[in-house]
Backbone:
């Protein structure tokens, strides 16, 4: 399947999903997000696939959600979309949940910037490999929002509450080496070795029994009940989306200046 901004490819037992909007640093639109879900469906049905790789074309994995595409949200969900924020969040969460619940191991290959919704996509993967120089972060609080597409839930599950609080409260980015130390990524490799490392890991996984790998994934993921936390993310965003701080955070982002939040 080849969509304008999402490319899929099957080769040597690997299903690959590539974000293909390099001129916009792979900023994610709602249409792209839906295409990722469709790609996950294709991966599940593909014959002989033993691993799924997710990566970005161009200079980075993804700069996050395309804030300029918020008008698309209004077109999709109607002029009163802000009052339906929990439903909208659930639609976005369904995509990361779909990816996470595949029995095929999902490996994220991260290079350059991986921010916001891009990192939430990566957190839904089973294993994360990062290139040297990669920068990862959830800057939502700097826009007056919270990570609501599983970012808060999965980051906390992965690195623990104390580290998750620091990263989310500050909205700061971490480099690949710090991400490795925190447990946010599994391995850091030179950028030229990133794809070969993902392919080699996929080949190593392919030596194991696929049913055993799939069941092991379900057991490990089943140790954590994330459903209530995901609902809390949706509730929180529905309370924040109509605030003045959100307008200020987004305006400051586009105007390239520090935000002046008032807690309103």
Residues:
């Amino acid at each position: 399947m080849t969509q304008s901004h999402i490319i899929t490819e099957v080769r040597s037992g690997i299903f690959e999903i590539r974000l293909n909007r390099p001129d916009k640093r792979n900023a994610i639109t709602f249409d792209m997000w839906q295409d990722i879900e469709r790609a996950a469906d294709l991966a599940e049905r593909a014959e002989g696939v033993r691993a799924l790789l997710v990566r970005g074309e161009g200079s980075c994995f993804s700069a996050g959600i395309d804030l300029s595409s918020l008008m698309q949200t209004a077109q999709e969900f109607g002029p009163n979309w802000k009052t339906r924020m929990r439903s909208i969040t659930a639609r976005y969460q369904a995509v990361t949940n779909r990816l996470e619940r595949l029995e095929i191991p999902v490996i994220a290959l991260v290079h350059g910037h991986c921010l916001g919704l891009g990192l939430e996509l990566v957190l839904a993967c089973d294993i994360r490999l990062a290139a040297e120089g990669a920068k990862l972060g959830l800057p939502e609080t700097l826009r007056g929002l919270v990570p609501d597409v599983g970012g808060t839930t999965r980051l906390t599950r992965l690195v623990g509450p104390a580290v998750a609080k620091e990263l989310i409260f500050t909205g700061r980015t971490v480099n690949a080496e710090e991400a490795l130390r925190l447990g946010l990524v599994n391995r850091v490799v030179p950028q030229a070795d990133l794809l070969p490392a993902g392919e080699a890991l996929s080949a190593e996984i392919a030596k194991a029994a696929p049913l055993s790998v799939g069941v092991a994934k379900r057991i490990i993921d089943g140790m954590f009940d994330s459903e209530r936390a995901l609902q809390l993310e949706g509730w929180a965003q529905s309370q924040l989306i109509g605030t003045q701080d959100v307008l200020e955070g987004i305006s400051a982002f586009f105007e390239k200046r520090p935000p002046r939040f008032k807690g309103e």
